[in-house]
Model the fold of this input.
Amino acid sequence: MVFSPRQLTVVSGKGGTGKTTIVGSFAALAENKVLADCDVDAANLYQIVIPEIIERGDFLGMQIAVRNEQLCTKCGKCEEACRFDAITVGQVNEMACEGCGFCTLVCPENALHMQQMSCGEWYVGETRFGYLVYARLIPGAESSGRLVTMVRQKAEDVAMEHETPLIIIDGSPGIGCVATAAIADVDLALVVTEPTLSGIHDMERIAGVIKHFGVPMVVMINKADINEENSQRIRDYCRNNDVELLAELPYDPTVTEAMASEVPLVEYRDGPVGQGIREAWSKLEQILDV
Ligand code: SF4
Ligand code: SF4
Done:
């Protein structure tokens, strides 16, 4: 039988719900796993697990027009042809170029060609918790589901190579293509939410995406004690939708100190939040059978 690692993705409907704090603690609790930070717009898991980079590569994005100034006679035909106002006789605007290639066809001097641009870098790092795969987009580059897919594929390659039974994915917040690319085809999605009206709304939206992909889902409430009424709404949602509520973590202001101190919360301070995360992890081990 072909070896295939189990995959858990941790997502939230929006940023700032404590998702990475939880994934950082799972990194410390899970025995044998590969970590994949697919929050490519704001990757920060590396700040908790501190990788030593052992492999890196370019993430190539779309093609844009590049001009050979030696050949250009400044005739202006490319400027006339470009529907996106991305090229003048003076310069090519890389941010505006849509990569259609039309200007290369009209240039009488063959002074233009298309070139694939680097939009970011991916990394494989070794940490004291196992391997971490992550990526960084060049500032201004469009976030990309393709980069998330690349990070996931690298994580799978590493897991296959080392026969690691589990991949823990830190997903992107929201429901855009970057978030959905971290959900497709995983074995379980954990939604981290907060008891606010927007938190509930965001949870319901991401739950719709998870359901669309046919992925089983569980929920954790972070800062559950800041609003009992809304926490009860989340409990009701879980019960009505047959979703397991793994844990309710209380509010603890020292959680942000753990992030700043660059160690997983369960190592920094094993208070009620750490305890809740430990209990959630034992349940996840059972659900994932790892
Ligand atoms: S069409 Fe070609 S030669 Fe004319 S301005 Fe553009 S790049 Fe230069
Ligand atoms: S590739 Fe298309 S969008 Fe880019 S500069 Fe040429 S014509 Fe304009």
About this structure: The radius of gyration is 23 Å.
